[in-house]
Structures
1.
Amino acid sequence: MYPPEFEYFAPNSIEEAVEALSNEDAKVLAGGQSLLPLLKSRFAAFGKLVDISRIAGLDYVKVEDEAIRIGPMATIASLESNGDVQRFQPLISEAASQIADPLVRNMGTIGGNVSHSDPANDMPPVMLALNAKFTAISKSGERSIDAEKFFVDSFQTALDHGEILKEIEVPVRRAGQGYSYMKLKKGSADFSVAAVACVLDVSGKTIKRARIALASVSSKAEIANDACRHIEGKEFSESLAEEAGTIAAKNADPQSDSYGSEEYKRRALGMLVKDSIIKAYIRGGGSI
Amino acid sequence: MKKITVKMEVNGKEVEREIDPRMLLATFVRDELKLTGTHIGCDTTNCGACTLLLDGKAVKSCTVLAASASGKKVITIEGISKDGTMHPIQKAFVEKHGLQCGFCTPGMIMTSYWLLGKGKKLSREEIRKYLSGNLCRCTGYQGIVDSVEYAAELMESEKAREKARNR
């Protein structure tokens, strides 16, 4: 299958890329693992593709000042196996290892994963749970966007036309911080039925702070606010985790499709939320 | 649409072609280079029959533009055997019945080639995980996992023999 016709441009610098993207009908091509299938199946068409894979130095991972800085072209496979990511923010590598299959992860990038903003993508909830900050660059300069403002709707982010994601910054894992990424999917290439990224700050038996973010159960990745509030400041118990799951499932807005009915998805989500809270609590040093 | 020039190294040989920029790498190796060992199964990033190595990493070539591969190194199934001798992975697939109809086999072998090139010892569970992007509708995977395990042994003993020869 051929994608619809387009003009191809592979700039050598981010400045050239930004310039090319001022064209209304231009689109960034990163790893292409979401964009090319969309083009081939004619769900999308663009007059110009700006392939940023030839811009040197966009695939870094740096740890400095209590933060991990990740270049947008870092592949999902590299984040899965990077020792610094595994050590300083293992939620990212745990989620990376669950994205599609190893061949797709060899090409797919974190920048593409978040900028594509498919409600079933895995990195958006991870970024929300970690309070990531995104740096966007355009002709008029750079700006920083918080994860909660970044994901606007299905396939829609806060990036304006002519803007490219330049860097992702996440805080390193704190002492007492537990994490978990869990998702339910059928085959490796399928979209998930539901997915949960959970970050808990644990002190003794108490959950001090909770960030639980969901994918696949709404029009975009989002924080399960009510579920977080329900467990924050409370002593952990399995029933507390279960209640949070019930709350998240009630608030979610899943659609029935070939991956399951609305009811099935709510039940799956409730269980994933419960299990991810338990796992994150234990990893945060909590005892059961 | 304006044609573009792509140059890349495929199985050790430099190739250069004028192509439509929307041509995918799978189509490029099959139609332009006549290397038809790379199969196109689903053409939707699911089945992995089109797997080849791009700069040393296994990728699904139906989901990479030939334009993006320009300047890079490609290895296809045709590039892994030497002087008409099968690669140990190919031998293992024959001996352990890693194929029935054979359509998915080039992709299975290219993923295995990448995987075993890492030189790590792998459990059956890990082999299954690494092959999760390659679908087979015939075998039920048992024979394929057996083949990859056996290929690892063959490659290991080949390495040992080589070492002994060089001593």
Note: The first helix of chain A runs from residue 14 to 20.
2.
Amino acid sequence: MKSAVIVFPGSNCDRDLAVAFEAVSGSKPEMVWHRETELPEGLDLIGVPGGFSYGDYLRSGAMAARSPVMQAVAQAAAQGRFVLGICNGFQVLTETGLLPGALMRNAGTHFVCRDVALTVGSSQSAFTSRYEAGERITVPVAHHDGNYFADAATLDRLEGEGRVAFRYAEQVNGSARDIAGILNDAGNVLGMMPHPERVIEKAHGRTDGRRLFEGLVEEMMARA
Amino acid sequence: MKARVFVTLKTGVLDPQGKAIQHALAGLGFDGVNDVRAGKLIELDLADGTSEADIEAMCKKLLANTVIENFRIEAVG
């Protein structure tokens, strides 16, 4: 499995994500700087990490979404490569237009940094195949702008097509329909606010995030 | 030439920042503030001859997220 993690100025979960990719797949991802106009050849998986790209200037993820590398990421997504955006990475993917909707300031205006309970919305994707639909897991969040917004028609479509990958099982940030993570229509792009890469080994206190990466690796091995 | 771009949240989109400002005003004794909506003002110093269409493109491509925001362009001077 060949993977890459995109690095923007202000990314701060890029190394955590790289560690998770390597821990589960056994191979080290390439770190790709945001100014690159091309991605390494033959990538199976691209991670868009959490952090505060460009200091969250203008809107969270807005500047990163217009950086040269994201055009290459969009092309790779269109070719069916897997793209995983976590936290700021989710914001970047919505700003890029790879996922619908937008992530707004948390309804309570506070930065929320704690473990939250999630419900798995669908197990019908490579990202969630190792979970049961309806299963409850605990994954940490750390964000200021995680309040998912989309118009009612878009929300209905996401729900109707089984594209809500994860929901909050408790009040966290005011997200529409408790959405914590969504898939694109082809199912190869996932954006989520919680941080699965922070709960992949026993030393982290829990391992609820590990199966997301395992499911991806399994799918990519099956395709290879 | 200069232009100002006002970026505001669309009607119906929750504005937690505006709500916090409203509550802070109430805390200072300013009763009767029914609602507060916060937005952004972006001032552009542009090459002469920049068209309105160009500025609109800037708004749509970067300055505003049209999923949640409206924008208004005002030419200055």
Note: Chain B has a mean pLDDT of 95.
